[in-house]
Design goal:
Shape: elongated
Radius of gyration: 14 Å
Distance between the termini: 45 Å
Oligomer: single chain
Largest sheet: 2 strands, antiparallel
Length: 50
């Protein structure tokens, strides 16, 4: 079966007035047809207050 999505060694960070915040660090996964993926964190972890 061919993967629908494959990511290897992905990192993501964002910058605001208080500096850099790392949201993802070196994640890898393969998503096959019919599978689901959710990336979750603590409540409010995606909000940036400026």
């Amino acid at each position: 079966m061919n993967p629908l999505l494959k990511l290897e060694h992905v990192s993501y960070s964002y910058h605001d007035v208080s500096g850099e915040t790392f949201a993802l660090s070196d994640i890898s996964f393969t998503l096959n047809p019919g599978e689901f993926l959710a990336i979750v964190g603590p409540s409010g972890c995606g909000n940036v207050m400026v």
